[in-house]
Amino acid sequence: MLELKEIEISEIQSISNTGDNPQVRCQRCNCIEQAKSKDILITESTWLKAATCGGWRHVTTDNATYSMVCSTCIVELYEVQHKSLS
Ligand SMILES: [Zn+2]
Question: Distance from the CA of 80 to the center of ligand 1, in angstroms?
Answer without folding.
Answer: 14
